[in-house]
């Protein structure tokens, strides 16, 4: 179901960013074309080299290419190119940006330009996840038509136990496959 699908994988700053490596690998194994976009804080948790190696494409993080020519990564083209935008993990900070239309980095600009379905997999500590502001942002993003893969229950990086764990990569793959299966059956 993911064969030849164009997937943008956004990765935000969270300890759960390590799961992006497995998610990228599973998407590529399913024969999807994967373009990874890292937020600035994500690269503190996982390296662009890891994700570039797994996706077989350069990882994007800035609006402009770092070659000194002034070339840019066109967020509009990226938003139109994708069959799906998956942001996993999505931090509380990025949830707030997306819910309120803030656009200060490449990933949020691609989100605002995307015409494809958007899948969000939050990851944060349990008190952050349960905070009324974060809850309101999750609800707002759902009301925009985004698919939210709610955080799971378990041990968190803080040592606390509760809701906040990012959905497992296999679960995200299952949700994407189900989405494309339904979408493809409508056109059959």
Automatic annotation (TrEMBL):
GO CC, one annotated term: phosphopantothenoylcysteine decarboxylase complex
Superkingdom assignment: Bacteria
Domain Flavoprotein: 5-179
GO biological process, one term: coenzyme A biosynthetic process
An annotated Gene Ontology molecular function: phosphopantothenoylcysteine decarboxylase activity
Pfam families: Flavoprotein (PF02441)
Protein name: Flavoprotein domain-containing protein
């Amino acid at each position: 179901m993911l064969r030849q699908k164009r997937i943008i994988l956004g990765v935000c700053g969270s300890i759960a960013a390590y799961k992006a490596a497995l998610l990228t690998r599973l998407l590529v194994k399913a024969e999807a074309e994967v373009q990874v976009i890292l937020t600035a804080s994500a690269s503190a948790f996982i390296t662009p080299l890891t994700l570039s190696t797994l996706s077989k494409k350069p990882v994007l993080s800035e609006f402009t290419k770092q070659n000194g020519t002034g070339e840019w990564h066109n967020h509009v083209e990226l938003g139109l190119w994708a069959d799906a935008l998956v942001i996993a993990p999505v931090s509380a900070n990025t949830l707030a940006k997306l819910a309120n239309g803030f656009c200060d980095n490449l990933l949020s600009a691609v989100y605002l330009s995307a015409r494809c379905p958007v899948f969000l997999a939050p990851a944060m500590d349990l008190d952050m996840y349960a905070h009324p502001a974060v809850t309101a942002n999750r609800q707002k993003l759902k009301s925009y038509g985004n698919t939210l893969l709610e955080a799971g229950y378990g041990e968190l990086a803080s040592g606390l136990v509760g809701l906040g764990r990012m959905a497992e990569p296999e679960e995200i793959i299952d949700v994407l496959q189900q989405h494309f299966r339904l979408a493809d059956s409508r056109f059959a």
